[in-house]
């Protein structure tokens, strides 16, 4: 396994050749904002919040799916990137129905944290106010599509960790949304194991435990970390 040497924000670091820029940056203690990224599952580069600049290229690249190369020069926090990231967060707020004051994840929401990090005190875009549904047909959980940011974490964690693949994507453009099985109510799903991994993976209040009120929905990422670590180390075997 070869080692690559590169610079991130003028800091010389080393990384394994199969690592992404995001992994290399995290190992070096360099923060890059993310939303669709979740440790333990595959990356898809959906949210574009981890965009970075690479010397010699005018095109911004997503750090979560871009591999390191020898001699690469990366910038993660330029004014250009900050402008793009704030715009992306504003677009997420404007495209959905994110009312933090009445959300179950208020104070425990990654989208809310990103808005604060980007210094977003208002949205400069026109709100779309889409007509989205809330599905509470499941015995234990619910999904509020108004708060979904289409990160596909639920899809990936259900597929890659639980192995059920209950969740999937449907529609295109502004009509894109997550579905259970063949677009049926969650409570009627034959594949859902009611494990709750998707709820813990959700970065916002889109997926929630029934009975949660404003600010009460907390995600336990440690459960997912434990499952991934146990699987990788074959700790299930006797």
UniProtKB/TrEMBL annotation:
PROSITE patterns: 2FE2S_FER_2, 4FE4S_FER_1, 4FE4S_FER_2, 4FE4S_HC3
InterPro entries: 2Fe-2S_ferredoxin-like_sf (IPR036010), 2Fe-2S_ferredoxin-type (IPR001041), 4Fe4S_Fe-S-bd (IPR017896), 4Fe4S_Fe_S_CS (IPR017900), NAD-red_Hydgase_HoxS_gsu (IPR016214), NADH_UbQ_OxRdtase_ferredoxin (IPR054351), NADH_UbQ_OxRdtase_Gsu_4Fe4S-bd (IPR019574), PSI_iron-sulfur_center (IPR050157)
Keyword Transcription among record annotations: no
Keywords for this protein: 4Fe-4S, Iron, Iron-sulfur, Metal-binding
Pfam families: Fer2_4, Fer4_Nqo3, NADH-G_4Fe-4S_3
Residue ranges annotated for the 2Fe-2S ferredoxin-type domain, each copy included: 2-80
Keyword Iron: yes
Domain 4Fe-4S His(Cys)3-ligated-type intervals: 80-119
Occurrences of domain 4Fe-4S ferredoxin-type (ranges): 139-170, 183-212
Protein name: Bidirectional hydrogenase complex protein HoxU
Species per Swiss-Prot/TrEMBL record: Nostoc paludosum FACHB-159
Source organism phylogeny: Bacteria, Bacillati, Cyanobacteriota, Cyanophyceae, Nostocales
